[in-house]
Specification:
With 310 residues, the protein is of the alpha/beta class. The chain folds into two domains: 220 residues, Rossmann fold (3-Layer(aba) Sandwich); 66 residues, YebC, transcriptional regulation domain (Alpha-Beta Plaits, 2-Layer Sandwich). Bound molecules: adenosine-5'-triphosphate and magnesium ion (MG). Magnesium ion binds next to helix 1.
């Protein structure tokens, strides 16, 4: 395990920001920490990094207790903070060089690391720019480059794609995948469920300081009973054919209203063909077929009664 958190409690005065959080991150995985604003994602990261003291529980990184002066552990960690933290007085190159230099004293080695990270985040044509001359998306990429240039084994990225253009967003997601493929373990916080679906091996969903669900994307989706929905436009569906479909296949829910047959099932992929076969055998015409897979928002909705992004 790269990270092992047990029963972590963090209070800000009377507000319980983390309420008995358990979290494990295995070597080589991308863990998505998904939750709405104020759910405790940043607080959890800051506790892991010893930037914040916590009230109860334990945190181990690389199998060791993390403390504020454990420099051996710190050198193996990369941090990309939620708020962009770069020096306005330094160019893109100088900023990366500064942060990398905190861990890599050798200048030659640093030069090659900087070239590598500049290419990774796609800032090749901007190395002599000052931050104020960069777009929001490019500045985010610089923020990332500063946090990861020293090739850390464990990287924390706190909402790195907020308010960036689609091009930068894709570049950032690509870079994170590449970092992971070259061996880094990644903790990625976001409130965009599409990103965790795309990027993450395992997902932890937080709300109001608590871990409310965790698992792989499929495990989480299996938790919601309203799993997958299929609708087929069928202008005319005789009662006996409706019954036949019902008898042959066991659905969680099935109804025919206003020329549309709706089916809810956990095995839609296996169910579609038999339904169409029955319709064809009865010489019935059908129109549009659409399926809607359960989303992580459905999972969140099921557990908390509210939407992930409200
Ligand atoms: N320094 C602080 N003092 C008091 N309360 C705080 C402090 N930092 C955070 N909080 C509160 O703790 C809770 C968790 O905040 P946190 O920033 O960890 O959430 P988050 O999931 O990172 O949210 P966001 O998506 O907005 O970044 C919130 O209710 C927040 O208002
Ligand atoms: Mg945050």
């Amino acid at each position: 395990m790269m990270i092992e958190i047990n029963q972590l409690v963090k209070r800000y005065d009377t507000l319980v920001a983390l309420n008995h959080v358990d979290l494990q991150v295995a070597e080589g995985e991308i863990l998505g920490l998904l939750g709405p604003n104020g759910s405790g994602k940043t607080t959890a990261i800051h506790c892991m990094l010893s930037l914040l003291r916590f009230d109860k529980g334990s945190i181990q990184l690389f199998g060791q207790k993390m403390t504020a002066d454990n420099y051996a552990v710190k050198a193996r960690i990369g941090i990309v903070p939620q708020e962009i933290a770069v020096f306005e007085e330094l160019t893109v190159y100088e900023n990366i060089d500064y942060f990398c230099g905190l861990y890599v004293p050798d200048k030659k080695k640093r030069q090659s690391l900087i070239s590598e990270v500049v290419a990774l985040v796609g800032l090749e044509t901007f190395t002599s720019f000052y931050p104020h001359a960069l777009s929001g998306g490019l500045k985010r990429r610089l923020n990332i480059a500063c946090g990861i240039a020293h090739k850390p084994d464990l990287i924390f990225l706190d909402e790195p794609t907020v308010a960036v253009d689609p091009q930068s967003r894709n570049k950032i997601l690509e870079s994170i995948k590449a970092l992971n493929q070259s061996g880094a373990t990644i903790v990625y916080t976001t409130h965009y469920m599409e990103e965790v679906e795309l990027l993450c091996d395992r997902i932890v969903i937080m709300d109001q300081g608590q871990v409310i669900a965790k698992g792989t994307k499929d495990e989480l989706k299996d938790m919601v009973r309203t799993s997958d929905r299929l609708t087929i436009d069928i202008p005319f569906l005789p009662e006996e054919v409706h019954k036949k479909i019902k008898a042959q296949l066991s659905f969680e829910d099935m109804h025919y209203v206003d020329g549309v047959l709706s089916v809810t099932s956990t095995h839609l992929k296996d169910d579609l063909l038999p339904i169409l076969t029955i319709l064809q055998e009865a010489n019935l015409t059908y129109g549009k077929i659409s399926t809607k897979e359960a989303t992580l928002n459905d999972v969140f909705l099921e557990i908390t009664g509210k939407a992930l992004r409200d």
